[in-house]
Each structure stands twice: as C-alpha cells, then as structure tokens.
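Long-time lurker, first post.

We've been arguing in lab meeting about whether LLH4SW3U would sit comfortably in this protein at all. Half the group thinks yes, half thinks no, and nobody has a model to point at. So I'm putting the question to the forum: if I give you the sequence and the SMILES, can you give me back a predicted structure of the complex? Inputs are below. Any interpretation is welcome too.
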Amino acid sequence: MLLRRVYKQHRWLASHVKFLSTQKSSIDIKVDNDGIAILNLQRPPVNSFSMDFLKELSKSLDFVENNKITAMILTSAFPRVFSAGLDINEVYKPDAVRFKEFWTTLQEVWMKLFGARFITAAAINGQSPAGGCLMAMSCEYRVMIKGTFTIGMNETSLGLIAPTWFMELVKNTINVRDAEYAFTTSRMFTPEEALKVRLIDEIAADKDDAIAKCKRFIKKFDEITPSARINTKMKLRGPAIKKLQNTRQEDTEEIYQLVIHPDTQKVAIFQLYSSPVSANPAIITGYDPMEVCIENCAQCKKMLGAWFEGQLCAESCIKYRGKMIPDCENYASISPFLNKL
Ligand SMILES: CCCCC/C=C\CCC/C=C/CC(=O)SCCNC(=O)CCNC(=O)[C@H](O)C(C)(C)COP(=O)(O)OP(=O)(O)OC[C@H]1O[C@@H](n2cnc3c(N)ncnc32)[C@H](O)[C@@H]1OP(=O)(O)O
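Top reply:
Settle the argument with this. Predicted structure of the protein with LLH4SW3U, as tokens:
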C-alpha cells in the first residue's frame, strides 16, 4: 500500500514530533502507523485563533509538508469545541499594527492549509462557529460527530462580514442559495443539516469514529497516482489562493476597518465580558456608559443564564447609548430582558 510505504520512510517522525508536542504546545502532533499526521488542537479553553496559535498552526503545517507526510487530520483535544474561531481578544480594541500582522498571519495559514499538497481532513468533534468552520471547510473532507454541536458562519451576528475568500470557499462547497442564506442569517447547522447541504461529508458517532472515517477517505488515495491527485487539487484550489495573494493588503485593510467599527466593538466587548473570569469592571478604561452598560448585561447573563436575554440587553445599550444601565440586583432595571422560560 502506498501510504504504508510512505510511513516506513517516515517512521522516525514519531520521535521528531516531540518538539511540537511539549507541554506548552497548543497543538499535539502524532504520526500514526499509516503515516497520517493527527493534529490535536489544544489551546484552552476553546481553540480560538490568537496570533500565537496561528503561528503554531503555521509551523505545524510546515512540519507536515516538509516531512512529506501524505495526509493530515485536524481535530480538537477538547470534548465540546472544535474551534471557536477568531480569538475575541484579538478583535477587541485592536492595535492597528498588531491586528494587521494578525490578519496577515491568518491569511498565510489559510493559504497553507487550503493549498496543502498533502491530503487534509477535519474530524469536527464539537462546536465550530465562524473561523472554526473556515478551518474545517479548508480541508478536503469533513466528518462531524453527532450531538448538540453546530457548525456555521455566524459572522453577521457579530457585526462582521466574512472575508471574500471564505465566502468563495463556501459558495464552491455548498450551493450559492444555501451559502447566501447561511452567511446573511448567521445560520448555525446541526450535523444532520450540515450534511444535507454538503457543508460536511459524513456524520460520526464519536471522535474515534470521526478519525476512522477521515482515514477511510484518505485511504481512497492509495489507488490514485500521487502526482495526479496533487496537480488536480492545485488546479482546483490554485486560483483562489492566487486571488488572495494579489489582494492581501486590501483584504487586511477591509477587515481592520470593519473590526474597529463601533458596532463590531460593542459585540466584541459583550462576548469578552460574557466570561465570568474576565467580567471585571476595573479593566474598563475611562468611563463610557455604553461600555459599562454592555458589561453589566454580560454580568447579568452570567448570573441569570437562560432567564436573561443578554444580546437584547446589549442591543438596548447601543440603542439608548448607555443611558439605562442595568443592575442585575434591581428587578426593575432588568425586567425588560427577563424571558418567560
Ligand atoms: C485555516 C485558518 C483558520 C483560521 C480562520 C479564522 C478566521 C477566518 C476568518 C473568518 C472570520 C471569522 C470571524 C470569527 O471567527 S469571530 C469569532 C466567532 N466565534 C464565536 O462567535 C464563538 C463564541 N463562542 C461560543 O459560541 C462558545 O464559547 C462556544 C465556542 C460555542 C463554546 O461554548 P461553551 O462550551 O458553552 O463555552 P463558553 O461559552 O462558556 O466559553 C468557554 C470559555 O471560552 C471563551 N471563549 C469562547 N469563545 C471565544 C473566542 N472566540 N475568543 C476568545 N475566548 C472565547 C469564553 O469567554 C469562556 O471563557 P472563560 O472560561 O474565561 O469564561
């Protein structure tokens, strides 16, 4: 078998992957007996893409490419989340220079993954919104485990517009009508719904089954001449990569302008302060009533959970420019946001 022959040549990799699998590493790489690299993403808590994480992903892809490993499976070490997409900390009040470097890194990683010469598959073993969905879509095959998890492009709900290259990728994977509906409405798909529109290729019982199914896909190429596979993939994917290569600066500037827009920042701060750990009023610099208002909404959401309509509260902060700041312990101030569960 072709893959077995390749693995023999690269058996030594098992001992060489350690440098990418130290305790500090956010990506654990293991090369299995068939010579397939399994990348377990393990950046707590939700594999969100920070600059450092993207750089590590970039190095990991180089490792797979440079060692002529035939195939790679991307999965998550966490039981409930594949990836939460962009790290909100990179988006909230970004420094222009850093954000542009961040986005340039992201473009690079995407081009490496999408244009990889090796076979790529994603074993999606948990939630996969926005950038998490893009990462999976950039692979050649997607298997998602059944359960209450969802996958999709929820950028508009965050006030963001997905980059053109991501839209093109989705349009080339599912039909244009489904893509437009999904992008504009921020629709999240259950595994069954995702399979129906071909956003994913298979559903698995659990992570092991998802990896086994990805491997079954990879095995199909045992019977195919490697150069024919690679050149065909490059012919199909090359134009999209070239297009981004020619428009990288405009793409970065467009995203930066979008991210610093006040409406996007309001959503970003809500996401950030929704975390009980980071919900610390002392972090707020200066007194912006709207910011305090949104932060309080996030605090109330944490306290009251499903009883409290956090997003509605945040929207009201924006609408009334922070004139009515909710106090979680004052029923009158939060009653408009309490639902009737
Ligand atoms: C090939 C290259 C790939 C890179 C491509 C990347 C991007 C391409 C461009 C496309 C544009 C994308 C835009 C985005 O990605 S914007 C980000 C969108 N993401 C979200 O909206 C997800 C928000 N999070 C959630 O919905 C949930 O957290 C969850 C992922 C469904 C997990 O839910 P649950 O298990 O209930 O966990 P919690 O909600 O309690 O969260 C735990 C923990 O994680 C923190 N967190 C969650 N999401 C993010 C995030 N995106 N960034 C940073 N931190 C996040 C959350 O605050 C909690 O923190 P604490 O434990 O401290 O409370």
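For your lab meeting: Residues 45-46, 48-49, 80-81, 84-89, 106, 109-110, 113, 127, 129-131, 134-135, 138, 154-155, 158, 160, 162-163, 166, 274-278 surround LLH4SW3U (CB under 6 Å). The two ends are 58 Å apart (CA to CA). Whichever side wins, do check it experimentally.
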